[in-house]
Write a structure and sequence with these properties.
heterodimer; A: 207 residues; 23% strand; B: 389 residues; alpha/beta; Rossmann fold; Rna Polymerase Sigma Factor, Chain: A; 2 domains; 8-stranded mixed β-sheet; two-stranded antiparallel sheet; 12 helices; 35% helix
Chain lengths: 207, 389
């Protein structure tokens, strides 16, 4: 059995996995090569399913024995009935969806809880590149140029919180990670997270 | 009577006395058919590969497509050629006969040993011909279930098949969910499309327009509607390929000549190829069987049996599914597979789905497709772990 390395150095994936109750039903939207699914199946004993857009990603997942369908977060979540899953996860993908609000609403419809991780466009490095260089930011975690990026809907942590409030989602947990993967002070105010969090992970439930 | 010059079996004899294993059923086990007929003398011909384990938990049923047969991975006695899915089924193949006990049976309405229109009606001593009751995919699956019962197998580890074989896989999962641990429907649909029914109708009309068809009584009258059946096969064969595949294989290349002959000879290689496909088909396949089995596909609409809601066909299923389609398959396009996947999602089923890149059209599922093999290996391997095999 060739599963991806479970001792992942992706802190955000470990953080997401920690938020999942063992033995639950999980859908990972945009599951890529199945790294998180394999981590969840192995360490949290969950019934893990995935959706992935790329043919290669899906073929690789299925060949590894993961339960994954080729599909699109923007169109294929509608096929699932309400409360199909305990958790619906969107890991580093929301910025690549066409309609993030609809995707988020669908996630909270088909899952009792939603876990979303995303890169924070309000991080000081991003702000610095725009402010000082006058150019769209390119970083290690977001290496694309503006003309070839699949990321079409960037947001800051603050923007995301506003969207949650708009659709009436309740924030059960929120964690911000700095560029080195360390947690940004738990009791720090939003503006501090928005400046020093390189990425964020939110655990949401329906309001 | 076999032809000693070639060592090949007589197709007409194969219909009643096949070289395969056969289970014969009498009035105590009638085949109850959707059209209302109870067939009380019927038989099912099948091949097996590998060994059934003591727990009888390692059986894989392979379902064949429209013009397939039970000879999935061994020499076909009628044509002398290799089995039709040797790329997929065999020792160390994705469906590994060293690990699994593989069963493949000829469909009801077929012509290689399971009861069909070419079989002898015991009441008249004549071929059934058009007096054979109309067959559905559900009838085909019911007959297979009788065979699985007769083999003493409670739960099939996997049911696998492409095209019409995939329809049987879906029907198995819907009719007998507790007896199907995993299901592998490939390049298939939960209902036959209008376009596909239309192509089938052209084929049937070609057969019936041949004067040698004799109203379906050609076997008694000693003729064969070879021209009609050949045309039907030529037309159907085009639908199994794709424009890029035809172009790559033949283009506009001429057949053994430098210039067009200004005649209706097979000037082009593609014409010659189709004629050959037609001619070789009529040597192994019964024309009335072709009418019946195409009809069975046309009638297939799994949702119609469940208030028009496909998800209801799979409600509460514990079966693990893996659905695959091919990019260039325009006969059973990816949208057909997606409809199955959406229904399975709505039913909360465990399902994987992948659209595989291939320019070989519908036939891709029968050919050397490394991505299909990797997907199948992964799916069967993980299902086997879950089954404790």
């Amino acid at each position: 059995m060739t599963l991806p390395d479970l001792h992942t150095n992706r802190i955000d994936l470990k953080l997401v996995a920690e938020m999942v109750t063992p033995g639950s039903r999980v859908l990972d939207v945009g599951c890529g090569d199945g790294q998180l699914l394999a981590l969840l199946a192995e360490t949290r004993n969950v019934d893990a399913r995935g959706i992935e857009l790329s043919r290669e990603g899906v073929a690789g997942c299925v060949a590894r024995g993961l339960s994954v369908i080729q599909g699109d977060a923007d169109t294929d979540l509608a096929a699932y009935p309400d409360d199909s899953f305990d958790y619906v996860i969107l890991s580093q993908t929301i910025q690549a969806t066409r309609d993030p609000r609809l995707v988020l609403e669908q996630m909270l419809r088909i899952g009792r809880r939603a876990i979303i991780s995303f890169p924070n466009f309000g991080h000081w490095r991003m702000r610095g590149q725009i402010f000082f260089l006058g150019r769209m930011p390119v970083t290690d975690s977001l290496p694309y140029s503006w003309w070839d990026t699949p990321n079409i809907h960037f947001c800051t942590i603050r923007d995301f919180v506003t969207l949650c409030d708009t659709i009436g989602a309740v924030k059960e947990r929120a964690v911000a990670l700095d560029a080195a993967g360390g947690r940004v002070g738990v009791s720090a105010p939003w503006w501090f997270w928005n400046l020093f969090g390189a990425q964020a992970v939110f655990l949401l439930k329906r309001g | 009577m076999s032809d000693f010059s070639t060592g090949l079996a007589d197709p007409l004899k194969e219909a009643n006395e096949p070289t395969s294993e056969v289970v014969r059923f009498g009035p105590e086990t009638p085949l109850l058919m959707d059209c209302g007929v109870a067939l009380d003398h019927w038989q099912i011909a099948y091949q097996t590969y590998g060994t059934l384990n003591a727990a009888k938990s390692n059986a894989i049923l392979v379902c064949h497509a429209l013009t397939g047969d039970q000879h999935v991975a061994s020499r076909n006695p009628i044509t002398g050629k290799d089995g039709w899915w040797t790329a997929m089924v065999g020792s160390c193949k994705p469906i590994d006969t060293d690990r699994f006990f593989v069963i493949c049976a000829n469909v009801v309405g077929g012509c290689t040993g399971t009861t069909g229109p070419a079989s002898t009606n015991p009441e008249t001593g004549q071929p059934w011909g058009l007096s054979f009751p109309m067959v559905t995919i559900r009838d085909i699956v019911r007959a297979q279930r009788h065979l699985i019962d007769a083999l003493g197998i409670e739960t099939l580890f996997c049911v696998a098949g492409g095209s019409m074989g995939g329809m049987q896989v879906l029907q198995w999962a819907a009719s007998y969910p507790s007896r199907v641990f995993s299901a592998l429907p490939l390049a298939t649909a939960a209902k036959h499309s209008a376009q596909n029914i239309a192509f089938h109708e052209v084929g049937r009309q070609a057969v019936m327009a041949d004067p040698e068809w004799r109203g379906g009584r050609y076997l008694e009258e000693g003729t064969r509607p070879s021209k009609g059946l050949s045309v039907a096969r030529m037309g159907a064969h085009i639908t199994y390929l794709s424009e890029p595949a035809l172009h790559r294989k033949f283009g506009r290349k001429l057949q053994d000549r430098e210039a067009p002959t200004f005649s209706f000879d097979a000037d082009f290689q593609v014409e010659s190829y189709l004629r050959y496909q037609g001619l070789s088909f009529v040597e192994r396949f019964d024309a009335n069987s072709y009418l019946y089995v195409t009809r069975a596909m046309d009638y297939f609409d799994l949702a119609a049996d469940h208030d028009g809601v496909l998800a209801k066909a799979f409600a509460g299923t514990k079966t693990r599914f893996c659905v695959a389609s091919f990019t260039s398959d325009w006969l059973f396009p990816t949208s057909d597979s997606r409809a199955i996947v959406h229904a399975l999602n709505a039913a909360g089923a465990s399902v994987s789905f992948v659209e595989l890149e291939s320019d070989k059209g519908h036939d891709a599922f029968l050919l050397e497709e490394p991505n299909l093999f990797a997907t199948t290996r992964g799916f069967i391997g993980s299902a086997a772990r879950a089954r404790g095999l």
